[in-house]
Amino acid sequence: MREFVHESPPLRVVLRAGASVTAVPGEAERLGLRRLLVVSGPRGAHTARAVADSLGDACAGLHTEARMHVPVEVAERAVDVARAAGADGCVAVGGGSAIGLGKAIALRTGLPLIAVPSTYSGSEMTPVWGLTEHGAKRTGRDPSVLPRSVVYDPELTLSLPLSLTVTSGINAVAHAAEALYAPDTTPLVSLTAAEGARAMTRALPDLAADPRDVDARGRALYGAWLCGTALGATTMGLHHKLCHVLGGTFGLPHAQTHTVVLPYALAHNAPAAPEALAALGAALDADDAPYALWELSGRLGAPRSLAELGLKETDLAVAAAQAAGQAYPNPREVTEEGVLAVLRAAYAGDRPSPT
Ligand code: NAD
User: Fold this and answer.
1) Which of 104, 134, 186, 309 is the S-S candidate for 4 at Cβ 3.0 to 4.6 Å?
2) Where is the Alcohol dehydrogenase iron-type/glycerol dehydrogenase GldA domain (predicted)?
3) Is 52 exposed, middle or buried (0-12, 13-18, 19+ CB in 10 A)?
4) Which of 40, 43, 227 to mutate to test the pocket of ligand 1 (most atoms within 8 A of CB)?
């Protein structure tokens, strides 16, 4: 018998082509919200304006200053804008950075959040917030930052460049993979994670063949939803910690870093998590899940090595010490030598093998 504690957060999800403009007003109404501040990054401003327009009189303003990793000053300015506008809720339109800003507003003000994701990062499904101050990113869990409603619109992701489509998709698969061996996983989370990984890895080759395939875009968002759900329900291990260090300390790009590191982190953990790796392999229809992910992302044109992402070889030991110097659950004991071996392999980008 597998013992567990499972909690399902109260969160409504809509997935429909065109939903960013057709469903958001209804979601706001269901929540009783009449003055919503719409937030996005500068590059998502056009889409955010369409969402704002769809809200009509229920839009209290549009703020398009979200930035990667939510700098504290950016969050403070957005909170001021929300207060000055008399907002009673917030709609975040965009990738993990825009949703991160919406979460920061929710954290400071308690305003309810509606998320309209345009990447596969999965942030919309988690109660985890992040804020960056003096170059250091702090994260925490708080139920108030979990969106009340998430609106997935495949049409919104048609503009996602293929390179980011692939790396953001593998970022989602990373959530599923680590959820499968997380100490707080449950039978329902395992099923969710496996199905999320399956849906995403099936959708990505279809999107590489035709990035404007709305059906495949919808299947990728469905996968992102499930992988994000698994992320929100569990505690992540070595792979996520390592990517956090590489992004936070060395400024490497989020989704690309996840894509490069995942096969090597999984190959390292595989001997200590045979069931999880078998479940992931079954989802990917492969005997060797780390190799299958390495092969898939490389075939679809994603970067394969940390060297390609601009990391210096001399940074590896610093990153290993940082990632090994924190406490977090991982199926295999985390040692500095072990993490350095993973990093060396990811730096070179060769076919993953156990380290
Ligand atoms: P992002 O939001 O920074 O977006 C990456 C780039 O893609 C940006 O330039 C953006 O303008 C562009 N973009 C986004 N959607 C687009 C679209 N549909 N078409 C064209 N361009 C588009 O990147 P991300 O990978 O979505 O999110 C990364 C951030 O989210 C990181 O800060 C990460 O820490 C955070 N995150 C948080 C959680 C959580 O649970 N709190 C989970 C995952 C990621």
Assistant:
1) 186
2) 20-154
3) buried
4) 43
Residues ≥6 apart with Cβ < 8 Å to 84: none
Q: Hey, what amino acid is at 139?
A: T
Q: SS3 of 89, please?
A: strand
102 CB near ligand 1 (under 6 Å): no
Protein residue with least CA distance to atom 22, ligand 1 = 160
Burial of 345 (0-12, 13-18, 19+ CB in 10 A): buried
Domains and CATH numbers, the chain: 12-157 (3.40.50.1970), 162-348 (1.20.1090.10)
* Residue 355 pLDDT > 90: no
- Phi, psi torsion values for 15, nearest 5 degrees: -125, 115
Nearest alpha carbon to residue 192 among 254, 279, 256: 279
Report, as an integer, the average pLDDT of 12-40: 98
pTM: 0.97
Residue type, 323: A
Ligand 1 geometric centre to CA of 119 (Å): 6
Rounded to the nearest 5 degrees, what angle is found at the Cα of 10, between the Cα atoms of 4 and 11? 115
The vertex-186 CA angle with 180 and 188, nearest 5°, equals 95
Q: According to the model, what pLDDT value does residue 109 have?
A: 98
SS3 298: helix
